[in-house]
């Protein structure tokens, strides 16, 4: 596939209504977990993005049938599956290939996975996955590939060494197949972890504590068939709030899943951006103060990410771009990933007033007038953040490697153009 480039004519006001896609990070573990049951599963509101397409190919390669019956509806039937050798190139494309470990181990008693890929945003440890699988009775060998074996998975009282999202998801799926009760303590509780748990419950699993940091699973479950709708993507909603703010545009984000937006709204409020709620829609007015709130006593405020329910790491890049358009000074502290902030060089080249203090901290002083520039998209969220910068900048920007953006955001050029943006995708979509 040829690399994708966006050419963006900036400085335009946007307006209108946009609906977020289904959550990428819900769809991925749920597609993988559909391999746990031998009955058919229908998933709706699945984002049709590069990451889900890659995982669907991997599911087919182990013997499941997986068909898109409508643009965002996926039917998966894993009547019989085999612990086949998985294509290392496909696994290396996505972080979520590691999510096949839980269901394949449960179904086949063994699985060998090439190392997963995903965003290059710092070290991405797998130790928490290994810890959880071992406590559930599996043996793990990690060499050039990851081998998991378990003749029988057994329920256990597992304390995760950190609330890793994908490790919690893998452990949750394995625990559903394990004999006995499992406690997953220090578990991640992100909306996508909740979505996966609700999907497993819909299949017949017995799970308590969904949305908390102690998940209790009574296994083994007899699983059936289900039809399940993926929840809206709160990270996409956050990206759209940033877009509305930096372009000073009124946007309505319809069916936004407002119950999961408190910490996100609070983060943007610190930047002087206040959203209204109307039913399940989020309304971003154009007349924002865009004035950064100092801490009590006039001290420089900070915005930092942490595991859920705090402000999400995947919105840090968007928040940095947004802060360049706000009045005041703020410390942005990315606590979780070591390399996510390096993209700010692109913003500095565009005229952003940012000091990158170290790999985890950047000081942003705004507002600054951004100028269009050529850029490269290093990862999904930095790519989307640069798209926001390009849409708000004076002049034309070129974003190379926009394939990265399309790993996570469905038809984003078309959807933003419908609001008034001017993004040309090369090659054009047929
Ligand atoms: C497919 C998928 O769902 N990917 C998401 C998943 O990745 P993933 O599951 O890979 O991320 P993890 O939750 O394992 O950890 C992310 C990083 O945060 C660090 N960490 C984690 C917990 C903690 O308390 N302290 C800490 O420093 C980890 O060491 C790691 O460097 O969760 C990340 C964190 O929300 C998101 O960025 C990814 O989009
Ligand atoms: C880091 C991300 O994705 P992945 O974990 O799939 O690389 C992301 O969604 O921002």
From TrEMBL:
Highest taxon of the lineage: Bacteria
SUPFAM superfamilies noted in UniProt: EPT/RTPC-like (SSF55205)
Annotated transmembrane regions: none
Sorted UniProt keywords: Cell cycle, Cell division, Cell shape, Cell wall biogenesis/degradation, Cytoplasm, Peptidoglycan synthesis, Transferase
Family annotation (InterPro entries): Enolpyruvate_Tfrase_dom (IPR001986), Enolpyruvate_Tfrase_sf (IPR036968), MurA_subfamily (IPR050068), RNA3'P_cycl/enolpyr_Trfase_a/b (IPR013792), UDP_GlcNAc_COvinyl_MurA (IPR005750)
Keyword Glycoprotein belongs to the record: no
Binding site for phosphoenolpyruvate: 24-25
Location(s), subcellular: Cytoplasm
GO terms under cellular component: cytoplasm
Binding site for UDP-N-acetyl-alpha-D-glucosamine: 95, 314, 336
Reaction catalysed by this enzyme: phosphoenolpyruvate + UDP-N-acetyl-alpha-D-glucosamine = UDP-N-acetyl-3-O-(1-carboxyvinyl)-alpha-D-glucosamine + phosphate
Example GO biological process: cell division
Single Gene Ontology MF annotation: UDP-N-acetylglucosamine 1-carboxyvinyltransferase activity
Database matches in CDD domains: UdpNAET
Active site: 119
The protein's role, per its UniProt record: Cell wall formation. Adds enolpyruvyl to UDP-N-acetylglucosamine.
Family, similarity comment: Belongs to the EPSP synthase family. MurA subfamily.
Name used for this protein in its record: UDP-N-acetylglucosamine 1-carboxyvinyltransferase
UniProt gene name: murA
């Amino acid at each position: 596939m040829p690399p994708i480039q966006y050419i963006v004519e900036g400085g335009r006001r946007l307006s209108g209504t946009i609906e977020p896609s289904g959550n990428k990070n819900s769809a991925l573990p749920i597609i993988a977990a559909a391999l746990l049951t031998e009955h058919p599963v229908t998933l709706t509101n699945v984002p049709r993005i590069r990451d889900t397409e890659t995982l669907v190919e991997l599911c087919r390669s182990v013997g499941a049938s997986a068909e898109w019956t409508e643009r965002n509806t996926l039917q998966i039937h894993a009547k019989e599956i085999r612990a086949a050798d998985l294509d290392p190139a496909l696994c290396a494309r996505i972080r979520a290939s590691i999510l096949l470990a839980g269901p394949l181990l449960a179904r086949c008693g063994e699985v060998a996975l090439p190392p997963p890929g995903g965003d290059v945003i710092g070290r991405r440890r797998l130790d928490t996955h290994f810890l959880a699988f071992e406590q559930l009775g599996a043996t793990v060998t990690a060499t050039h590939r990851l081998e998991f074996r378990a003749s029988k998975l057994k329920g256990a009282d597992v304390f995760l060494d950190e609330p890793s999202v994908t490790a919690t998801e893998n452990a949750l799926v394995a625990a559903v197949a394990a004999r006995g009760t499992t406690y997953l303590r220090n578990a991640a509780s992100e909306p996508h972890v909740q979505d996966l748990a609700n999907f497993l419950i819909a299949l017949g699993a017995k799970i308590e504590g969904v949305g908390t940091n102690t998940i209790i699973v009574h296994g083994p479950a007899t699983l059936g068939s289900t039809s399940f709708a993926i929840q809206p993507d709160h990270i996409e909603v956050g990206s759209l709030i940033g877009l509305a703010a930096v372009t000073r545009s009124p946007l309505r984000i319809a069916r936004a899943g407002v119950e999961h937006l408190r910490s996100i709204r609070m983060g943007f409020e610190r930047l002087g951006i206040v959203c209204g709620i109307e039913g399940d829609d989020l309304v971003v007015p154009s007349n924002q103060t865009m004035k950064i709130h100092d801490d009590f006593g006039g001290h420089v405020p900070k915005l930092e990410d942490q595991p859920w329910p705090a402000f999400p790491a995947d919105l840090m890049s968007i928040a940095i771009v947004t802060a360049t358009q706000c009045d005041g000074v703020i410390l942005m502290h990315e606590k979780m990933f070591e390399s996510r902030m390096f993209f700010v060089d692109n913003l500095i080249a565009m005229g952003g007033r940012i000091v990158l203090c170290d790999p985890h901290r950047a000081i942003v002083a705004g507002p600054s007038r951004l100028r269009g520039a050529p850029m490269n998209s290093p990862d999904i969220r930095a790519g989307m953040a640069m798209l926001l910068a390009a849409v708000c900048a004076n002049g034309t920007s070129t974003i190379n490697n926009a394939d990265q953006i399309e790993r996570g955001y469905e038809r984003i050029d078309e959807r933003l153009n419908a609001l008034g943006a001017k993004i040309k995708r090369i090659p054009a979509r047929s």
